[in-house]
């Protein structure tokens, strides 16, 4: 069947019908845990993927239990919508102190079954004071990796993801302005972990960037650099199969890349999980001289994020 050519007027109607923002759903972490457990067996990073699956299990439980977080006040939301600011940007947003108990609870639950070296780290986190936890959160949210305790970062990040995803769910997508910087989340201003070409419904075949912190999805045209918006000579890379469901989209203008996941080929792809499981693609891109423009909070490394 030949493709239908959109006529003037139809193009505008199609564009207006595209959901520009999709807030996180109630099963984000359950979906992640299930995907991690499917891909962990036989994988070179299988033990770590299983560990992150246990974190995601806890995240879902915490997400379901913490139901009374108050959204930002209406005046703040109106101001952000007027000026194009992400309403949940960490800077200036007071955090409910209960988030720190999430950190300690996660570390305490994982500690007993962890290997000896990891157990010592988890016990230290479980017994940490408020000042240290908040300092680590500030460094992590700013991606100031020189100040982040990398060994503890996944635990801190996991609690922050629960907290920000819950806050994001209290918002109305229609009241959130389009991002001033399309490469950053319009909800919280964080970097994406990857982009996804979705399948089904009104978003079928559309590409969305996925927030590394609050798991919101925001629309971006395909074949467009997610870092600098260039459309010139965008390239696609894979480790073996050029038609792989997980590829790196590269830009020769800013020399950056972001992974793109094609759910029309593998419907259960999950951005955080499959980004972790495709580190060989990151190594390939590094060898080719590209810097990663996204971030996975479950596997931070020392140094600075490319482009920051």
Supply database-style keywords.
11% strand, eight-stranded mixed sheet, 308 residues, alpha+beta, 10 helices
Can you give me a brief rundown of this structure?
With 308 residues, the chain is α+β, with helices and mostly antiparallel strands. Helices cover 39% and strands 11% of the residues. Strand 3 (207-211) and strand 4 form a beta hairpin.
Question: What does this protein structure show overall?
Answer:
The chain has ten helices and eight strands. With 308 residues, it is of the alpha+beta class. Strands 1, 2, 3, 4, 5, 6, 7 and 8 form an eight-stranded mixed beta sheet that branches. β3 and β4 (217-219) form a beta hairpin. α2 runs antiparallel to α3 (46-65), α5 (98-110) packs antiparallel against α6 and α5 (98-110) crosses α8 (150-169). Residues 9-14 and 303-308 have low confidence and may be disordered.
Strand residues, percent:
5-15%
Number of helices: 10
Question: What is the radius of gyration computed over CA atoms, rounded to a whole number of angstroms?
Answer: 19 Å
Q: In angstroms, what separates the terminal alpha carbons?
A: 46 Å
* Biggest sheet statistics: 8 strands, mixed
- Poorly predicted parts: 9-14, 303-308
Q: Name the structural class.
A: alpha+beta
Mean pLDDT across all residues, rounded?
91
User: Which term fits the overall shape?
Assistant: globular
Sketch the topology as an H/E string, one letter per element. HEHHHHHHHEEEEEEHHE
Number of strands: 8
Helix % is 25-40%
